[in-house]
């Protein structure tokens, strides 16, 4: 039953022979892209230690936040999302704590902090980070978690027959000001998309100068949910480099002319 629930979530079903209608059980379980949405900062949760925490407390560090929604006893899909996240964390240069934080929230109101803590310890081992790492695993009441999920467009339904939650897969990148800047879909994430999303969310305050230069040559394409080549960004950089080269040449001629005048006087 759990495996069947996973395939229902990932691939969907047809509502009768020859029909492309979404079955009722899957309605409202998709992720709706909502760039620019403001996250309610007063959402009340419990962190993995059982301490009350608001979304504003997570933002208090002034760094972008990677938000994941799922539940800790999910039979498969939620673990695949977190596995994909830990995998992409290792494949690019931005570092959790230094450049961004992570908040993972359970959509199951019956899950408690002890379960969140156990899950957190497992994933900190995967990324080889200490307990002080700013990755919060949280639980909360149904109304509060639903408020958070709705704000980023994360839909989900509880299937009484299987006893599992049906939802889609993705992660959300939130700016330090609490604004949703990117939704990255699926269970596997390109390191370049992940990195650019975080740099974008920080308004260029994280990453190297080269990272910011590269970002200016790419822009986010909502249809494909990926970063694509941005010709005008490249033209701006080419124009800037042209000005630098011309300035350097003029400076060289100016210095040469001054030296020539000095020899003749």
Describe the structure concisely for a colleague:
By secondary structure, this protein is α+β, with helices and mostly antiparallel strands. The chain has helices at residues 2-11, 55-59, 77-90, 113-126, 142-152, 191-201, 209-216, 231-264, and strands spanning 44-46, 52-54, 65-70, 101-106, 135-138, 156-159, 164-167, 170-174, 180-185, 218-221, 226-229. The protein is built from 8 helices and 11 strands.
Fold topology:
Elements: H1 2-11, E1 44-46, E2 52-54, H2 55-59, E3 65-70, H3 77-90, E4 101-106, H4 113-126, E5 135-138, H5 142-152, E6 156-159, E7 164-167, E8 170-174, E9 180-185, H6 191-201, H7 209-216, E10 218-221, E11 226-229, H8 231-264
Parallel strand pairs: 3-4, 4-5
Antiparallel strand pairs: 1-2, 3-8, 6-7, 8-9, 10-11
Please describe what this structure looks like.
Helices cover 40% and strands 18% of the residues. With 265 residues, it is α+β, with helices and mostly antiparallel strands. Strands 5-4-3-8-9 form a five-stranded mixed beta sheet, with helices on both faces. Strands 1-2 form a two-stranded antiparallel ribbon. Helix 4 links the parallel strand 4 and strand 5. The longest helix is centred in the last third of the chain and has 34 residues, at 231-264. The radius of gyration is 24 Å and the shape is elongated. Mean pLDDT is 81; it is low at 1-19, 207-218 and 230-235.
Which key phrases capture this entry?
265 residues; alpha+beta; 5-stranded mixed β-sheet; two-stranded antiparallel sheet; 40% helix; elongated; disordered N terminus
